[in-house]
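Listing S7. Sequence submitted for prediction.
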Amino acid sequence: MNQSLVIESLKKSFGDFKAVDGIDFYVEEGKFFSILGPSGCGKTTLLRMIAGFLEPSSGSIRICGDEMIGISPNKRPVNLVFQNLALFPMMDVGENIAFGLKRQNFSKKEIEEKVKNILEKVHLTGYERKNVSNLSGGQKQRVAIARSLVLEPSILLLDEPLGALDLKLREQMKIELKKLQNEFGTTFIYITHDQSEALVMSDKVAVMNNGKFEQIDTPKNLYANPKTSFVANFVGETNKFEAKLIDDAGVVKTKEGIDFRVNLIDKNIKKDCFVFIRPEAIVMMVEGNMEDMNYFDLSIKTILFDGSNTKVLATLNDTEHEIMVSLPQNRKFAHIKEGEVISAGVHISDCKCYE
């Protein structure tokens, strides 16, 4: 498959601060690629270099095979959707979408046809004369995306475009964005600090930390097989234990004094380490008779009812260490009460250990 974007050895420094520190990656044509990371990790700086608003300190940016270093933003085959959307309030929906087409000297007839077609694709047929200030948040999102996609860029860059929306609308727009990307077939490069957005929409996700990529993977593999402790801690909910390696075969003792047999993801651990266990990996009400499991008791503190995402907050054995456990979607555990002690276990393979 052709590559829309190829980044090699890309760096950007501001004085002594390395915002982007030697990144290499590529994005295949027509894919949804997300860059996920906490605030200040360098993801927006990276996006602005791809768009042409910042010049790299060194490295290469190739779009559809052409080197972009030194090429101005308006000459690059990319468009950018900002978090604040940057719609023109004095223009109606049609005029907003037509703005870039007019600058490229399309005829009036071509502009009308393109605006009509793009509005149909984003499910806003008949909205040409609507004032953008009268639109809902989701409709404004679609107008901003339509304004960018009508120019048929090779790559659409999206800088946390759902950040200003309320939770329910954000959930709806995640699905909407993925459907739009599939329909248009345009390469999307999406910046976010929200792991749910990245996991739901993306074909590939790059997790960024301190100017570097910690891991590039499919959402499923990123969640199931994080390569570093940062990825394990940042992507998805997890229970974290500080521990020390007491047996090279993979036995650790947590600082609370609990022994776990673990999956040594990092083979270079000398002594101090971290163990991560997903809430859904913990099995409740099990008997201690399987060789590939760690066993312990859970003292139920609180039941956090959230419909299909109900969880239990519990302490482990006789310690004060709190862990989260996801409840399976059946009625087997409906009788669980606060204060109850329940036997539980977790497979060794699900106890992932990192330096």
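Caption to Listing S7: primary sequence and predicted structure tokens for the chain studied. Residues 280 and 326 are 5 Å apart (CA to CA). The mean pLDDT is 90.
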